Amino acid sequence: MTQIPKVMKAIVLTGPGEHELREVPVPQPRAYEVLSKVRAVAICGSDPEIFQGGLAGIWPPYYPFIAGHEWAGEVVALGEGVTNLNIGDRVAGEPHKGCGFCENCKAGRYTLCMNYGNSQSGHRHYGFVNDGAYAQYAVHSANTVTKIPDTVSFAEGSLGDTAAVSLHGLELTGITPGGTAVIIGPGPIGLLAMRLAKAMGAAKVIMVGRRSRLEASQRLGADMVVDFEKVNPVEVVREITQGRGADEVFECSGAAGTLTQSILMVKKGGKISLLGVPGAEVQEPVPFKQIVHDEIMITGSRADPNTMWRAIEMIAAGKLNVQDLITHKFSLDSYQEALDVFINRKDGAVKVIIEPNERE
Ligand SMILES: [Zn+2]
Ligand SMILES: [Zn+2]
Questions:
Q1: 139 lies in the same domain as 124
Q2: Which ligand is nearest to the CA of 303?
Q3: Number of the ligand closest to the Cα of 48
Q4: Cis omega (within 30 of 0) on the bond before 285?
Q5: I want to staple 304 with a disulfide (CB 3.0 to 4.6 A). Which of 62, 162, 164, 358 is the partner?
């Protein structure tokens, strides 16, 4: 059995834009929580803003704070009442835990918990509102961790959350078998949406983006890539589909103008799922009449309610490759370099992983 030390290393945010590697006490699991030894934690597109403090007061609500939510590791201690996990289990985590009592939580929609941010209610949003996994050990509610089989590496497990986010976004609209899906934004969520759309039966997946990430999507299996800096993606999609439009559009960039583009490139009766998180300042006038007359369905998509275990099953079964999205791995000591590589997309960086304990 693993000896649990009293102190651990963690990346501690001490104020907006200020962070350092520090020794802090290893947290203790309370009832229905587990303590895990973190073996891999992937840097998320939302992490740089949390580090910079652009949303300080909300994400995080306090300092000092430990961010990080895309993690995998080993369970090393159980809080009282935990029956679904054992010490030694290999697991992957998701960031949201609902209060469990509000109408949305009771309906299984716990990423839309009515008590969001109210930790008193039992709600948790690890790495955003509550301490997360950029540390050697982390405590999580036992219902936010999913077992991973021995055949799935910790690094792959740490991509389970991203894959599960993409899966939720796709499930909200469904995928038309034999149809054409467009994905705007070839970041990690868009790339995994691309692979899942194919696995779910799309005949053609068109990626819209630019530069190195668009190139990456081509390498990683896109049927077609559209560079929006060179051509009008709406015209290209209409052309490819003989004027018909795409069956589904998945907006994974959050960039201004892409909602309108999505509406203009989807077919009559088509569906649009919005996964990319825009800045609060992004406001967009939309072709209202076309949405009405063409019965276009548009849905927002938040995180990964109830999709994590299926994302892990797909990875384990070889139906979803995440391995080749992992471009870099760093130790906890080199986290500054890891952030730099991720933020500045150095050497074709897609997913950058930090390994806080033994390296895989
Ligand atoms: Zn994330
Ligand atoms: Zn709730």
A1: yes
A2: 1
A3: 1
A4: no
A5: 164
